[in-house]
Amino acid sequence: MAEVSEQTILAGLGEIVEEIVGVPAADVTPEKNFIDDLDIDSLSMVEIAVAAQDKFEVEIPDDELKNLRTVQDVIDYVQGLAAKA
Amino acid sequence: MNIQLAQGAPGARILAFGHYQPENIVTNDDLAARGVDTNDEWIRSRVGIAERRIALDNESMVDLAVSAGDKALAASGLTAGDIDLVIVATCTAESQVPNASATVAFRLGIKAPGAYDVNAACAGFAYALSAASDAIRAGSAKNVLVIGSEKFSPWIDWTDRTTCIIFADGAGAAVVTGSDVPAIGPVVWGSDGENADKIMVQDRNSFLHQDGQAVFRWATTALHPVALEACRRAGIDPSELAAFVPHQANLRIIRGIAKKLNAPNAVIAEDIVNAGNTSAASIPLALSRMIERGDVPSGGMALIIGFGAGLTYAAQVIQIP
């Protein structure tokens, strides 16, 4: 997979979060913590990870979810995998 | 010299359902009051359960099975003497030896039927129903009593909030007979033993353990194709379904699969709200209660899909009696 810009991932993630938990995409900003700031629980995180896998064509295993605390964490994770691919 | 084969019925159908739940209701507030680190809002939002039934010490898994089987038999119009096969689906047998089904049959006054237990965990009823249908079509049995019964409470660590808020006790049963017009569709089933450790009781001294996130991911991504395939093989479009009765695992899983199934005319079973997750019992329990309330039309098509530990899964379309 080619380079993905931070903006592309952020916009895609915003759409996913809005679709799955109803939080407005505009509220999904890099510094936000999924649990504390966006009130997203562990099962919704699984749904978000599955949707993000499809959208960004990367693997996000359950073991990795606990490390993805903030929106920025997801951006870094996706960009990191995309760089390796 | 050739072996002769028995002559079976062209198809099989369900004559009636029956169910039984223990009287003892345990609410979410009751669990919190017992010191479990949880609360009503947390449980409702995670799994969609408001209350569940928990059997008392003097009520066994076999007792639950007998009560549900008795009701299904009474509703079917058949008598104990008509039943020639009893299958009990359970993964919470008190004892490995003997099986539950022979005892259940004896207590129901069913004389010397074929009797065996099925363990496919939460998929057990769908497996057992398929076995019943096949036995009737092969000529091995004429009338089959299929029971899903679970007493999960002794296998639960009542301080573990990842399991004790979910699992519950109950039983559901169906009487299956031969039919010129098929009313039980082809089963679509499978398993994934690589993930056996995701839901397990390690040994006889252990409690049930579940990796909730992994199971949730599997259930919300791998099962809707199975459900769609069961419709396709039965020749029923999802839009023709009057009911969708998935295993009552978690309300979010139920709604997730239902959304992907896209069955706009189907009543979606959400029995979990008041019954909890009763494993192999949940499908017949839910459907029996829906029929009793008049929520689903007699003669309508229902898609059932069981899924759980193993991992195992099975789905088929059935006609509602």
TrEMBL record, chain A:
The keyword Phosphoprotein applies. Residues 7-82 form the Carrier domain. Its main location: cytoplasm. Transmembrane segments: none annotated. The modification O-(pantetheine 4'-phosphoryl)serine is found at S42. Pathway: Lipid metabolism; fatty acid biosynthesis. PROSITE patterns: CARRIER. 4'-phosphopantetheine is transferred from CoA to a specific serine of apo-ACP by AcpS. This modification is essential for activity because fatty acids are bound in thioester linkage to the sulfhydryl of the prosthetic group. SUPFAM superfamilies: ACP-like. Keywords: Cytoplasm, Fatty acid biosynthesis, Fatty acid metabolism, Lipid biosynthesis, Lipid metabolism, Phosphopantetheine, Phosphoprotein. It is found in: Cytoplasm. It holds the Pfam family PP-binding. Belongs to the acyl carrier protein (ACP) family. Carrier of the growing fatty acid chain in fatty acid biosynthesis. NCBIfam families: PRK00982.1-1 (NF002147), PRK00982.1-2 (NF002148). This is Acyl carrier protein. The lineage of its organism: Bacteria, Bacillati, Actinomycetota, Actinomycetes, Streptosporangiales.
From TrEMBL, chain B:
Keywords: Acyltransferase, Cytoplasm, Fatty acid biosynthesis, Fatty acid metabolism, Lipid biosynthesis, Lipid metabolism, Multifunctional enzyme, Transferase. InterPro entries: ACP_syn_III_C, ACP_syn_III_N, FabH, Thiolase-like. Its main location: cytoplasm. It catalyses: malonyl-[ACP] + acetyl-CoA + H(+) = 3-oxobutanoyl-[ACP] + CO2 + CoA. Gene3D superfamilies: 3.40.47.10. It is an enzyme of class 2 (transferase). It comes from the Bacteria. The active site is at C122, H247, N277. Pfam families: ACP_syn_III, ACP_syn_III_C. It is found in: Cytoplasm. Residues 116-193 form the Beta-ketoacyl-[acyl-carrier-protein] synthase III N-terminal domain. Residues 248-252 are annotated as: ACP-binding. Pathway: Lipid metabolism; fatty acid biosynthesis. Its EC number is 2.3.1.180. Catalyzes the condensation reaction of fatty acid synthesis by the addition to an acyl acceptor of two carbons from malonyl-ACP. Catalyzes the first condensation reaction which initiates fatty acid synthesis and may therefore play a role in governing the total rate of fatty acid production. Possesses both acetoacetyl-ACP synthase and acetyl transacylase activities. Its substrate specificity determines the biosynthesis of branched-chain and/or straight-chain of fatty acids. The last Arg residue of the ACP-binding site is essential for the weak association between ACP/AcpP and FabH. This is Beta-ketoacyl-[acyl-carrier-protein] synthase III.
